[in-house]
C-alpha cells in the first residue's frame, strides 16, 4: 500500500476498491458532461447505469467534497443537463459501448489521483497493519513459547 497526500493506492485492489474507483469514474464523467454542457450552452441528456452515483448526487447528506462539486455543476447546468438511470448489462448498445470504453480507460487511462474517503483509507490501513502484524507474529522467535502454548 502507498499513501501520498491523502491519495491511496493499493497493490492488489479488492473488489470493493474496484467498485469505488468505478463509481468515482462515473461521477467524473457526469461532472465532465455537466461542465461541457455549461461551456457550450447545449442541452444534453446523460444516461448512467450507476445507481450509487445518481443516489449520491440526489442525497442531502453528502460529505464528499468531490460529490458536492458534481452537485454544484449539475445545479448550475440544471436547465441544460438531465440525467437518466439505465439498467446495466441488459444488451443496451449505448451502455455496452460505454462500459467497453470505460474498461479500456481504466486499464490504460491516466490515474485520476482523487483523494480517497477517510473510511476507505482507514479500512485499507487497518488491513495493511493487521497483515503486517500477523506476518511479524508468525515469523517472530521471541514469543515462540507463548505462541506454542496459547495459540496452537
Percent helix, as a range, is 55-70%
Taking pLDDT < 50 over at least 5 consecutive residues as the criterion, the unreliable ranges are: 1-13
Specify the overall morphology.
elongated
- Kindly estimate the percentage of residues that lie in beta strands according to DSSP: 5-15%
Main sheet overview: 2 strands, antiparallel
Query: Any idea what the radius of gyration is?
Result: 21 Å
Looking at the structure, the CATH topology of the largest domain is Nucleotidyltransferase, domain 5
Class by alpha and beta content: mainly alpha
**Straight-line distance between termini:** 30 Å
Assign the CATH class of the largest domain. Answer: Alpha Beta
Structure annotation, total helices:
6
Mean pLDDT: 77
Strand order within the widest sheet? Answer: 1-2
Amino acid at each position: 500500500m502507498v499513501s501520498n497526500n491523502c491519495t491511496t493506492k493499493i497493490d492488489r485492489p479488492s473488489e470493493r476498491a474496484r467498485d469505488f474507483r468505478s463509481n468515482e469514474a462515473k461521477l467524473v464523467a457526469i461532472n465532465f458532461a455537466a461542465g461541457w454542457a455549461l461551456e457550450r450552452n447545449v442541452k444534453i441528456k446523460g444516461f448512467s447505469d450507476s445507481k450509487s452515483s445518481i443516489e449520491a448526487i440526489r442525497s442531502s447528506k453528502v460529505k464528499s467534497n468531490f460529490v458536492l462539486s458534481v452537485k454544484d455543476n449539475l445545479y448550475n447546468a440544471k436547465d441544460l443537463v438531465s440525467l437518466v438511470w439505465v439498467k446495466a448489462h441488459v444488451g443496451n448498445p449505448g451502455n455496452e459501448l460505454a462500459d467497453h470504453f470505460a474498461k479500456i480507460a481504466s486499464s490504460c487511462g491516466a490515474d485520476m489521483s482523487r483523494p480517497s474517503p477517510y473510511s476507505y483509507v482507514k479500512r485499507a490501513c487497518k488491513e495493511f497493519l493487521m497483515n503486517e502484524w500477523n506476518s511479524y507474529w508468525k515469523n517472530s522467535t521471541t514469543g515462540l513459547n507463548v505462541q506454542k502454548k496459547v495459540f496452537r
